[in-house]
Specification:
This protein has 206 residues and is α+β, with helices and mostly antiparallel strands. The protein has nine helices and four strands.
């Protein structure tokens, strides 16, 4: 009996790994270099392919570029997060849609009725938890998509979600999930690299 070795799968090269992972940092200040609309479109073009349970895709993005819009965001942030948000060329307000099951006719048409019925049978808090979790998975990919465009991301969760939702999502019912500042790094943008949890602590085999 002979075995056939599979052809090597394509891999991200060393420079790509540095850009997305090993040398990527969270920016704490931003330059005044503009971020083009085409760059934002390119970010979403990558981020929209993130995995989600049953292809539910609950993540929603609101781009905010104007000074007025950033002020509206900043008033709901914890104090240490306000200045960096006001200085960012673009802010992405990430939310999740609790009523994501309504979109299964688009996202999973072959099983739309089954999946919609499944979520309709669950308690609202379980549906909300599913939306929040899957949006979190999508958010991780969203941050990688920002880095892939050569931009710096400053994700934050230190804000008043009730106030943020009333400010931006009173009509849609979306629920704010994270704020991500986007731009080119400014002066003293990086803290010193902090240690990672040891592999022996974080990784196990079963």
């Amino acid at each position: 009996m002979t075995t056939t070795e599979a052809a090597p799968a394509p891999q991200l090269d060393a420079q790509g790994r540095k850009l997305l992972f090993t040398e990527a940092r969270t920016a704490n200040s931003f330059s005044d270099t503009k971020v083009a609309d085409a760059q934002l479109d390119a970010i979403w073009e990558l981020a929209k392919w993130a995995p989600s349970s049953m292809n539910s895709q609950p993540l929603r993005v609101t781009w905010i570029r104007s000074s007025e819009g950033k002020e509206r965001v900043a008033r709901h942030l914890m104090e240490p997060n306000r200045a960096k948000t006001l200085s960012a060329p673009v802010v992405a307000l990430l939310a999740y849609e609790p009523n994501f099951a309504e979109h299964f006719t688009t996202t999973f048409p072959e099983r739309a009725e089954m999946y919609s019925g499944f979520f309709a049978s669950l308690p609202p808090e379980h549906v909300d938890a599913a939306a929040r979790y899957n949006a979190a998975v999508q958010t991780g990919v969203f941050i990688l998509a920002i880095r892939a465009q050569g931009l710096a991301a400053g994700p934050m969760t230190g804000f008043d979600p009730v106030g943020m939702d009333a400010e931006f999502f009173a009509q849609t019912g979306w629920r704010s999930h994270a704020v991500v500042n986007i731009g080119h790094p400014g002066a003293n943008a990086w803290f010193d690299r902090l240690p990672r949890v040891p592999d022996a602590t974080a990784v196990s085999w079963a």
